Amino acid sequence: MPNSIIEISQKAIKNNITYIKSLLNDQTTMSCVLKGNAYGHGISVMVPALQKVGIHHFSVFNSLEARQVFNNAKGEFTIMVMGDISDEDAHWMIENHIEFYTFNLQRIQNMLEIAKTKNTPLNIHLEIETGMNRTGFNKSDWQELIHIIKNNRKYINVKGICTHYAGAESVSNYVRVKLQRNIFKKAIKYFKNEGIQPERIHSSCSAAILAFPEDNFDMVRIGILHYGLWPSRETFISHMTKHNLEYSPLKPILSWTSYIMDIKHVNKGEYIGYGNSYLAENNMTIASVPIGYGYGYSRSLSNQGRVIVNNNRFSVIGIVNMNMLLIDITADQNVAINDNVILIGKQGDHEITVSSFGNMTDQLNYEVLSRIDKDIPRILK
């Protein structure tokens, strides 16, 4: 028996994809972002689940994730690597027509050398630096980049031109993102005037399709939204208000369940767990759950986390250990060893959300999810 199980809801995935598609033009391709082990949901589970609802374009950060998608996808599909490519994977990517971002001259030149030895063209996306100041071609490199492409037409397919916005989830970044949008549009025009015609143009992440729908272009890169979560509380409130919605149209697709490993009684006046952070002010009954920060349950939830057992909410007490946490079950003497413990998810009238984790630990939804241990079994329901 595993110490916990993560369940992924196929019904919720379908709901979310359907809603996101309703926000897009029929001609706009949706690429689902699966970096960070599919935001902690599990690439091996998410790929077939997404293909069931008509998604066949997948974005990942590195070549290792590209291999994982490749090994789990069926039929026709496209993989796009937005970041790291290991030397060991470069040949494999070219052989299997994996698309990838190129954001400096060294990468395109190195990959071009391999492509020529294999007589197989590269499938590249030109990432443009527009103000994120992370990765992307600066304007000073554009002419040399164009020169390389024109002189190697046989070996280069320009699949896309793209950029990434520096914080579309907050109005505080509006001026900066507006400048980026203008720079990107100028770059598109520049490359087209030079005879470089990308198959796709893309700049929008989850936050951007909500904030700047007019800039969805040919493709959008959807991350947190298709997992049923919002990029920020600000985007959630703005979207709900704009569309006059009473309830969130998105459904979280992940639930995380463990179990009661042991139960014991603690006398009034005794400390519980490591150190002296929690003192029993009354006689108490406590239960141990075999989950801790080693599995992604943050130590910051010590003395403030909540779980659900038998349709009742219980408090985490004491310091969260690497492999264990303790909960106060004094109020319900019917709790028994092996009872299910909901860490994230819903049971009866109670729910523990990913957002509540974030609020208590000062982490983003993205952080909470991506830190969940990869070895915990993921099951599609």
TrEMBL record:
Documented EC number(s): 5.1.1.1
Annotated keywords: Isomerase, Pyridoxal phosphate
Keyword set includes Isomerase: yes
Boundaries of every Alanine racemase C-terminal domain copy: 253-381
PROSITE patterns in UniProt: ALANINE_RACEMASE
Enzyme class: isomerase
Gene Ontology CC terms: cytosol
Protein name: Alanine racemase
Lineage: Bacteria, Pseudomonadati, Bacteroidota, Flavobacteriia, Flavobacteriales
Annotated gene: alr
